[in-house]
Amino acid sequence: MLTRRTALLGFGATAFAASPGIAFASALEPRALRFRNLHTAETLNAEYWQNGVYAPDALAAINHVLRDHRTNETHAIDVRLLDLLHDLAGQLETREPFQVISGYRSPRTNAALADASSGVARRSLHMDGMAIDIALEGASTELIRDAALALGRGGVGHYPNPGFVHVDVGRVRRW
Question: pLDDT tens digits for 68-88?
Answer without folding.
Answer: 999 999 999 999 999 999 999
